[in-house]
Amino acid sequence: MTSEPSARTAPPAAYAERLRAPWWMWPAAMGVGALLAAEIWMGSSGLRAWVPFAVLLPLSALLPWWLGRIRVAVTTAELQVDDARLPVSVISDVVALDADGKREVLGVGSHPLAFVVQRPWIKGAVQVVLDDPADPTPFWVVSTRHPVELATALLAARRD
Fold this sequence. Notes:
Layout: E1 15-18, H1 25-41, H2 47-67, E2 71-74, E3 78-81, E4 84-87, E5 91-97, H3 99-106, E6 115-117, E7 125-130, E8 139-143, H4 147-159
């Protein structure tokens, strides 16, 4: 018995990565949350003794989780970056960037219409050059911990 993929299932990802926050961001966020809560508390009694801690500590734990929610994936049909979708048919070229290349692409000479999903704690990125006359966006720049693998997956999806 063979199972055919249904129309509802998404094609398998040739590349998938989540741009998670680094480990050091979690204790830093908790430390800042605890410091702010202590500043509000300042030795008072009543609600000011516990509400700042009950509110700010969970919020400070949610911040690194929220910052690390971005997912980058390549399927046979598209590049997915969070909610954005780019069909591989409009990709002209893909360039893997190291930290210096990323800084140059996002620096002073950057194009104002470029689509950028950038995380400062991730050094690498890819630049996806587009060839779509209907879209004014010249290229996408997407942070990734594995720029060569992502570029290879995009180029392979474009060939297929």
